[in-house]
Amino acid sequence: MLKTVAAAALALSAVFTAPAANAASDVPDFVTIDVVTVNGSGCPAGTAAVAAGDDRTAFTVTYSQYLAQAGQGSAPTDFRKNCQLNIRVSYPQGFTFGIAQADYRGFANLQQGATGTEKGNYYFQGMSQGASRTHTFTGPKSDNWQATDRAQVAEIIYAPCGEVRHLNINTELRVNAGTASKANSFMTMDSTDSSVSTKYQFSWKRC
């Protein structure tokens, strides 16, 4: 199921269900994802979409205008774009969750001397503890890019058991023209045909 996300408070939800007999013991029988807000220069209203996986272990986000650029033809503010998702995850009592892995993909056209950076930051509402990962790409490069944020078991940050805490995911693309300021360099995390998406994998545990 695919849902368009607006840049204000939303009532969209993605629901995962499966017969109890088929549910793994360490995965809840049902999971509901509500996208509360989405804000940022990389995801203007109507340019992001959420898709729910049927196995209740992951969800994906697809963007259509997530592009950062620097150098010739770019505006001063184009070098950095970001998007922050605020997500409410509902599930049966006795479970809690964290984000075990995030897979990012896009396209980069970086000139010799230019660099591009993708950053992901994950934290629960009201908690100071969070996780952040950064990946840097160096020109010359004109190809698809991929980056994975993978947490070790001991590094996964879980929502407090028995409490409702929204999950915040803040992503960023940044391009530095470097010595190639007379040419255009850009980096995207978007897709016009929904074939390129960001995938977030849950880590579930019993309380």
UniProtKB/TrEMBL annotation:
InterPro entries: DUF4360. Residues 1-23 form the signal peptide. The keyword Signal applies. Transmembrane segments: none annotated. Pfam families: DUF4360. Keywords: Signal. It comes from the Bacteria. This is DUF4360 domain-containing protein. It comes from Lentzea cavernae.
